[in-house]
Write a structure and sequence with these properties.
The chain contains six helices and eleven strands. It has 289 residues and is α+β, with helices and mostly antiparallel strands.
Amino acid sequence: MRRLLPIRLLAPLLLVTVLLSGCAAEAARVPVPDDGRPPATAPEPPPAEPAAPPQPDPTPPPATPAPPAEPQPVPPADAPRVTQAVVAGHTDGDTARFRVGGAEERVRFIGIDTPEVYGGVEPLGRESSAYTARAIPVGATVWLETDIELRDRHGRLLAYVWLERPRAASDAEVRAKMLNARLVLDGFAQTSTYPPNVRYVDHFTRYQTEAREAQRGLWGAAGGGTEAPAPPASAGSGAPGTTTVFITRTGEKYHADGCRHLARSRIPISLADAKARGYEPCSVCDPPR
């Protein structure tokens, strides 16, 4: 009979058998390279970085070219020199208030005279005042042109009032755009010349002749008949062969040039017309008789 190994020897043998079986199984799972070295473990790839958001193009798109500005008209060299002003108020037919350069000016219109509305209303006085107020309402923009003397003895600015900016001093523009001229043409003013401010005296004289011949305003029946202001015989010293004297707006006498009674108004008239209208000679200046 075979002898059985003692149990104390059998336990170590079983442990060795189990260990050898585990090594054989591991060797079967992991292939060994030909050179006998274990295979290198491939490094894990780095984590992918998140994609950056798209950046706007730093180059701005080309700007759309602006349309070329319309060229501003350049006033001709001989255009009247004017100052822009805004109407601030009205006084009467030939005087108004304007804002000029931040200051308010009382302006007397050069070369004309309208019937009075203060100290006794003269024929068509209110009508001439209303005419001016309609032509230059408060807030309207006008252009003022001065002459040689800037102010009268009352401190008022002396000016020609243009309703539109003038391009030239042509007769057509004076007729259409200057308020002084319009008042004369429509019969609401007569010429009243005080040298040296005589730039447009020839224009105003022609316009007064037209208004008188057409019997407009002062020269028509509405002007008050013989009480209407008398027109000048001509632009200067009268027509050839005519003696010129002077009357005032409210007086009843005619005067020689230079008479002290002509300080406030000086209206030229022929001697024959003065006598026909009933004017008497002044006893101070001794005019022609």
